[in-house]
Design a protein that fits this description.
Elements lengths: L5 E4 L1 H7 L4 H30 L10 H29 L1 H19 L5 H29 L5 H10 L1 H15 L7 H23 L6 H6 L3 H15 L14 E4 L6 H11 L1 H22 L2 H9 L6 H19 L2 H4 L2 H24 L5 H28 L6 H30 L2 H25 L8 H4 L9
Antiparallel strand pairs: 1-2
């Protein structure tokens, strides 16, 4: 490739004009499976929290259960940063194969843990694979999906996390029932499910091409045009009837990589307001989700005396609400608009959690009504959390998209997610309903704060080409 060559390409315009086809469904299934795996992992760990405190398993304490979730998230942060940079430098496709391989090996090794130290290490390694997936997959999805439906597709794919959560919940009902599987073996088999699904994901991803937008930036425009032409002719019944380009060609200067100084300048200076927005949205939703979900099982067991083997049954309706939220609300992010919907979902999720926290503190809830309340809350909060990933994946230039996703996922997770499970694990270990009530109020206030920030500096990216939302850095070089 000739470094610094100026080219004009219709690749972005051709991708955005393309009608929805079987190929787009293949992209959704093959790349969206990432969130199914993540949901499976988190749910298994959450459901297994109570079982792993028993002597015949690993004999963990409540604090160690919370700490293992922190190790998982810390690994996800490191993986996101490492693989996020590699995704922008080496390509989307190469990295989403590497990251799923790391996940597959690590989750298989988790089944053979023999102590807290080994379990925490393997959980961190699993998190590294999943964290890398976030950067590689989110950037690939946004660059392949037409602009007019990018919001709803992105939200639905991110919401598929809870399909994995439902699978994990259903699996634990069998694997954690001593009548079916011995206690010492069931939790190990549970992690084997993730490794098996990882193999299926690798199989499907063989048919996903490299992002034509990434190829264009790296001087491989002929290859990018060929991929787009193949998609148009193979999956569109009448390619000659496709609408004309309604956008001018994208003019860029090819490059092999983006210098760190330019990355720093773009994120810290040129896109400072967008960086603040990305951080706040990721931080608030990370604290909100991880504070509640990673300790879900402990709350049911400690405050409502739910047996450990029955926890998975309470997670199923919770997971269903999280799946249905993005499914029913997703199209509104493309029609009503990003700013209005992000403000509405963040704010409403915070208000509903504050109300539920008060009902919990007043002793007015049972295990069933607590689950119902959380299901309603996360019907809204799931769409809000997914919109945070959508936002950071579309408001930064193409050359640094994956790294930007990784940076804001990492910062948001470190500040809002890593400490939350450890903190709430400690609170639950105290057995104080007052302390837990106050913790929930903090999470609710943070979501409302996220809504305020979105209203202030949110970006109206609905139905706009990625290149119009954030022009490529190389298109502005003199």
């Amino acid at each position: 490739m000739a470094e610094g060559k100026w080219i004009e390409s219709y690749v972005p315009a051709r991708l955005d004009r393309m009608p929805w086809s079987q190929w787009h469904w293949l992209v959704v299934i093959a790349l969206g499976a990432t969130w199914i795996l993540d949901g499976l992992e988190v749910t298994l760990a959450g459901s297994l929290g109570g079982i792993l405190t028993r002597r015949e398993t690993l004999g963990l304490t409540d604090v160690q259960v919370g700490a293992s979730a922190t190790f998982y998230l810390a690994g996800a942060v490191i993986g996101a940063l490492l693989f996020g940079y590699g995704t922008d430098r080496l390509g989307r496709k190469k990295l989403f194969f590497i990251t799923v391989a790391v996940y597959l090996v690590a989750t298989g090794l988790t089944a053979f843990s023999w102590s807290f130290a080994s379990y925490a290490f393997f959980r961190a390694l699993t998190g590294a694979g999943i964290g890398g997936e976030y950067a590689a997959i989110n950037s690939a999805i946004d660059e392949l999906i037409p602009a007019r439906v990018r919001g709803r597709v992105d939200l639905m794919i991110n919401g598929s996390y809870w399909v994995g959560a439902a699978l994990g919940s259903a699996a634990t009902l069998v694997l954690l029932n001593p009548r079916w599987v011995p206690v010492w073996l069931g939790w190990r088999c549970a992690f084997g499910i993730g490794a098996t699904l990882g193999l299926v994901v690798i199989f499907f991803r063989r048919w996903i091409p490299e992002s034509p937008r990434w190829l264009m930036i790296h001087g491989r425009d002929a290859e990018a045009e060929r991929i787009v032409s193949e998609i148009e002719h193979k999956f569109t019944s009448h390619p000659e009837l496709l609408p004309e380009h309604n956008a001018p060609p994208t003019r860029i200067r090819t490059r092999t990589h983006t210098p760190w100084q330019q990355i720093w300048n773009a994120i810290i200076h040129e896109y400072r307001r967008r960086s603040v927005l990305g951080f706040v949205l990721m931080f608030t939703q990370a604290f909100f989700y991880n504070a509640i979900f990673f300790t879900y099982a402990l709350v049911l067991m400690r405050f409502y005396s739910v047996p450990a083997k029955n926890v998975g049954g309470y997670l199923l309706p919770f997971a269903l609400g999280n799946v249905l939220g993005p499914f029913f609300l997703g199209h509104l992010f493309d029609t009503v608009g990003r700013k209005r919907m992000i403000c509405a979902t963040y704010g409403l999720a915070g208000v509903l959690l504050a109300l539920t926290a008060w009902l919990f503190y007043a002793g007015l809830l049972t295990a069933e009504t607590q689950t119902l309340a959380w299901t309603i809350i996360f019907f809204v909060a799931s769409a809000a959390a997914s919109s945070a990933y959508l936002t950071v994946s579309e408001i930064f230039p193409l050359e640094i998209r994956a790294l930007a996703i990784a940076i804001f996922y990492a910062i948001g997770t470190l500040t809002g997610g890593v400490g939350a499970p450890l903190l709430f694990g400690w609170i639950i270990g105290m057995g104080s309903s007052t302390a837990l009530f106050l913790g929930y109020l903090v999470a609710a206030a943070l979501m409302i704060f996220g809504a305020v920030v979105e209203a202030w500096i949110g970006v109206p990216a609905e139905r706009r080409s990625l290149e119009h939302v954030a022009a490529p850095l190389s298109s502005r070089e003199s």
